[in-house]
Specification:
This protein is an alpha/beta fold. The protein has 11 helices and 12 strands. It folds into 2 domains: 44 residues; 188 residues, P-loop containing nucleotide triphosphate hydrolases (Rossmann fold). The longest helix is centred in the N-terminal third of the chain and has 17 residues. It is elongated, with a radius of gyration of 34 Å. 38% of the residues are buried.
Length: 320
């Protein structure tokens, strides 16, 4: 109900104003004649509107079909083997972004989604000159170090490689051979205290210090402790190398163990040899790791690539 108070010179004028402003259906609630002779009238009108269902009043048809095909994305994530908890988070975020922003292209929506859910960094970020690599045996750790050293060489960043691996002599020989080709200094420090001293010296001489650790079985506490002790000696960027084609559930369990000893960055390896990236997406999401690069080729010179939301989006939708 709408109520209005009107002041007029007389009742006739008041009625005219009421009809003009409130309509013919308005009713006078009260009236009062003031000392100066004017009339003060209180009028009201019911605002309820009757609904008409005449044939000509047909409801307008509005399409509720979303521009972004959520089912298509769901199928892509299923194809890649993304864990359900991560898949649900991606789908929910994609739907929110679709509603908030005027994006029509599914690639743009997914890119925005992955940009919001994941963190990305640069393997050559010089705010972290000391980079320690860890992973299971055969995860491509030593090769990733050689590729990183090569990228540093291209960027004219002085670099050295330090190996702490006293388990696999072959790995040290391989890294030393790479270092020699790159004209990069190579050091071997199998003891924790020796590593601490060598890193202090290296930081004064080189722009980048790359540290290799023994490939371990993360389900054996003794082996995990060995890498953990190296991590305790230094401050730097702790990078987990992970085979992109590994079983997703197993990969997440392994990554969680490495995360507990300090791994904050993820470097997927053999990305060129797998068609499904569910492991990559699930590990980064479940273990809160930032992507720093990806190994995309066997080439040492060109085998390391930056990874971002756009490139991940393309890989996810390529399954369609």
């Amino acid at each position: 109900m709408k109520i209005k108070q009107i002041s007029a010179a007389n009742m006739s004028e008041a009625l005219a104003i009421i009809k003009s402003e409130l309509g013919a259906d308005a009713a006078i609630i009260s009236s009062e004649k003031k000392a100066d002779g004017t009339i003060l009238v209180m009028a009201a009108v019911d605002e309820d509107t009757d609904l008409s269902f005449e044939i000509e009043d047909k409801p307008e048809e509005v399409s509720t079909k979303p521009i972004f095909e959520l089912q298509k994305l769901r199928e892509c994530l299923d194809y890649h083997g993304v864990l359900d908890v991560v898949k649900d988070k991606i789908l929910a975020t994609a739907r929110d972004i679709e509603r908030q922003f005027p994006l029509k292209d599914e690639g743009e929506i997914l890119t925005q989604t992955l940009s919001k859910l994941y963190a990305y960094s640069d393997i050559l970020d010089m705010r972290h000159p000391v980079k320690l690599f860890m992973g299971t045996s055969g995860s491509g750790k030593s090769t990733a170090i050689a590729k990183t050293a090569t990228q540093a060489k291209f960027q004219k960043i002085s670099c050295c490689i330090i190996s702490t691996d006293n388990v696999r002599a072959g790995a040290n020989k391989q890294l030393e051979a790479f270092a020699k080709i790159l004209e990069t200094d190579f050091y071997f420090c199998p003891e924790e205290k020796a590593l601490l001293q060598k890193v202090k010296e290296a930081k004064e001489r080189y722009g980048l210090v790359l540290i290799d650790t023994p490939g371990i079985n993360p389900f054996i506490d003794k082996e995990v402790l060995k890498v953990e002790n190296f991590c305790r000696q230094i401050k730097g960027q702790f990078i987990l190398t992970m085979d992109s084609g590994r079983n997703t559930i197993e990969a997440v369990e392994i990554a969680e163990i490495f995360a507990e000893i300090g791994a904050k960055y993820l470097l997927p390896t053999r990305l060129d040899l797998t068609r499904r990236i569910g492991t990559v997406l699930s590990v980064a999401a479940c273990c809160d790791m930032s992507f720093c690069a990806a190994s995309v080729s066997s080439s040492i010179a060109n085998g390391l690539s930056a990874i971002d939301a756009k490139s991940l989006s393309r890989l996810v939708l390529s399954a369609a």
